[in-house]
């Protein structure tokens, strides 16, 4: 019996490239013996609702769009008890997630991975009741971040740039946070924080340590302290630019669960989009929660 595929795509994502490639993509799916149901999204939340409602009736969910669409698919899949695996054809402008999974930007090559890539169980994060694929972040840069699509790609370069710009201001806005993880409880002022499951966040690999694994049930966490004077601020900027992490100015650790508490609301970005504002932010890693198809590794 043919396997049933639900293919959901955002026709407006990125430069609308899917529109002209659709026939080629569908031919490739059919040649791989899938019976395909195609659904172009019509509005926000369409993709999430569709997966929640129909996801269990399919053997394979494939989506094409930017980070927003992918995030909605994740949300839909996580609500299902038995989650079908997921394929992804990136069509947005930010590609950290796709590059983590070795999925190329070209639609044709990504489509080949959808039908022939290797299955890979990937950790999924949650921030309170919302899910994310590879990053949840707060702090100095966030207001600008979700207005500019390229933001996540150059997150830390951007952060260094923004900090450089605020050097002349009397103070940078910061959050006073209580951070609980594992057996640790720390309290400090932070200008920025990120919780990631990705080996491609701004290419800033040194910050969260080497050997990032996407299926180990752990996040890489980096929290940057509020600099007490211009010299400290300059040191932070330097460490962001040179990508050498300095423990005097930042906490970095790995964990599967953390709780951040603040007496004012902390505004988050998740997967590059606005992710809500909370006084209490609880983050969990759901180990190997969704199986994706990724590019095969060179032997
Ligand atoms: N037909 C549609 N009309 C308007 N908005 C849509 C439609 N389909 C999906 N959306 C919403 O648009 C938002 C952005 O979509 P998506 O992330 O796929 O593309 P993008 O913004 O071009 O990509 P990126 O964020 O990676 O640059 C998502 O929240 C999605 O739910």
UniProtKB/TrEMBL annotation:
Keywords: Kinase, Lipid biosynthesis, Lipid metabolism, Magnesium, Metal-binding, Phospholipid biosynthesis, Phospholipid metabolism, Transferase. Residues 1-131 form the DAGKc domain. The keyword Lipid biosynthesis applies. Its cofactor is Mg(2+). It comes from Velocimicrobium porci. GO terms for biological process: phospholipid biosynthetic process. Belongs to the diacylglycerol/lipid kinase family. This is YegS/Rv2252/BmrU family lipid kinase. Pfam families: DAGK_cat. GO terms for cellular component: plasma membrane. GO terms for molecular function: ATP binding; ATP-dependent diacylglycerol kinase activity; metal ion binding. NCBIfam families: YegS/Rv2252/BmrU family lipid kinase.
């Amino acid at each position: 019996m043919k396997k049933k595929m639900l293919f959901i795509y955002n026709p407006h994502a990125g430069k609308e490239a899917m529109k002209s490639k659709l026939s080629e993509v569908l031919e490739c799916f059919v040649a791989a013996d899938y019976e395909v149901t195609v659904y172009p999204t019509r509005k926000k939340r369409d993709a999430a609702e569709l997966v929640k409602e129909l996801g269990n009736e399919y053997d394979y969910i494939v989506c094409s769009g930017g980070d927003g669409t992918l995030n909605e698919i994740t949300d839909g899949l996580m609500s299902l008890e038995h989650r079908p695996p997921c394929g992804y054809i990136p069509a947005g402008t930010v590609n950290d997630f796709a590059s983590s999974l070795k999925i190329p930007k070209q639609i044709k090559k990504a489509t080949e991975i959808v039908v022939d890539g290797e299955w890979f169980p990937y950790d999924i994060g949650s921030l309170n009741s919302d899910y994310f694929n590879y990053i949840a972040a707060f702090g100095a840069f966030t207001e600008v971040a979700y207005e500019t699509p390229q933001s996540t790609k150059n997150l830390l370069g951007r952060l260094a740039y923004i900090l450089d710009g605020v050097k002349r201001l009397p103070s940078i806005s910061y959050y006073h946070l209580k951070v609980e993880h594992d057996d640790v409880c720390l309290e400090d002022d932070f200008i920025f924080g990120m919780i990631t499951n990705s080996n491609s966040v701004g290419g800033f690999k040194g910050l969260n340590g080497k050997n990032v694994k996407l299926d180990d049930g752990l996040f890489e966490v980096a929290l940057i302290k509020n600099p007490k004077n211009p010299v400290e601020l300059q040191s932070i900027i330097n460490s962001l630019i040179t990508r050498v992490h300095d423990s005097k100015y930042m906490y970095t650790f790995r964990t599967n669960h953390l709780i951040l508490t603040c007496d004012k609301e902390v505004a988050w970005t998740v997967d590059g989009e606005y992710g809500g504002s909370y006084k209490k932010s609880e983050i969990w890693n759901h180990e190997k929660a969704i199986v994706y198809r990724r590019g095969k590794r060179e032997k």
